[in-house]
Amino acid sequence: MAKFQRPSSLVTLVTLLVVALLLHPTSSTSRKTLNHHHHRRNHFPNGIRVMLRHVDSGKNLTKLERVQHGIKRGKSRLQRLNAMVLAASSSTTTPRQTPNGESLEAPVHAGNGEYLMELAIGTPPESYPAVLDTGSDLIWTQCKPCTQCYKQPTPIFDPSKSSSFSKVSCGSNLCIALPSSSCSDGCEYVYSYGDYSTSQGVLATETFTFGENKVHNIGFGCGEDNEGDGFEQASGLVGLGRGPLSLVSQLQAPRFSYCLTPTDDTKKSVLLLGSSENVKGAKEVTTPLLKNPLQPSFYYLSLEGISVGETLLDIEKSTFEVGEDGSGGVIIDSGTTITYLQSKAFDAFKKEFVSQMNLPLDKSSSTGLDVCFSVPSETSQVEVPNVVFHFKGGDLQLPADNYMIGDSNLGVACLAIGSASGMSIFGNVQQQNILVNHDLEKETISFIPTSCDQL
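The line above is the sequence of Peptidase A1 domain-containing protein; the predicted structure tokens follow.
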């Protein structure tokens, strides 16, 4: 159990509760087609560094309020993810029409997200804030002429003004890799995101700029019909999934890493493509990445169990395994705010966690989180159970700030872990101040605790 102090000053109290929750647990258990990727791998020997910012950055919100916003977004994303599983297991697709009246079949994808990456597209380059999504593959932005476009923070990309824009041929590898496409005026695509948000247009190549680095002939979707309400803060999306359409696959990056600063931090997070940072003195936990043939874009983790305090939860091993129908399993996802555990696993987690907390449950349901505790104003110390995720290959003990969130105005301390049906998701709150390294050659993922704002 871990103790934290409650200061006497109200101003200090609010700051500390909102920012840190006073939690520190102790130890416990010119224009070409796309057949050209071979030269990219060593093009940037030191990798590409991209800064990230949270979708709610710059807003006057407490940490709890940011998490609450994320939970609302996360419920929509959960529906999308579950729809993907159902679609894959039943071979269900959503028909759409091309501008020429041809029918396209559009499997659903994750979409939306919590972090934005800054890049530029075209020659000359135009700024392009994009949703970062490790749960899907396609890179796309809204393009002129738009038949249907949502309001975005930057001017809509005009391909006629870029000297490096080129449509992709229907016989190209990436056109073939699209889950749904047709051929009329080039390779036409439609990408659906489960809640009926879509991007539809033509596949093309362009020059993308990441900081000082330019990468030519990146395949992306030039979306002329984009519908949905989950992308307003961005001009498109960059998929970092495991499929051939994703940015990491097109770069042939042997690895990529990200490090997310706390949700309430004003400092930016970082994404490293093709490289990782060396963190001295940190305990690294490395676990195999699993594959689900029915959901090949997702990064599945080898989770074997969870401990609360000194208690290893009684959870059936099959709970975190991928089923024959592609259901279940545990994915790591930068686009989901909190961690969601399969309902039976969550019930066991909740029961044990509540039993070890010396605080009454808050039953007001005012926060939107599944488990909250009332924190009396006269309380000077609170003990918080340690939480350890047991992965194949090592145990990851989470900092308390990565699973408990407090708010002095409401007088609550809440668990940033929730219940879900189907698959479990390791969310971004649990990943904060941890360098998360995806080694795509070794097919492993590593967790390295560090201060992300120092990288």
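Note on the example: The chain has two domains: 2-29+277-454, 39-259. The longest helix spans residues 63-90.
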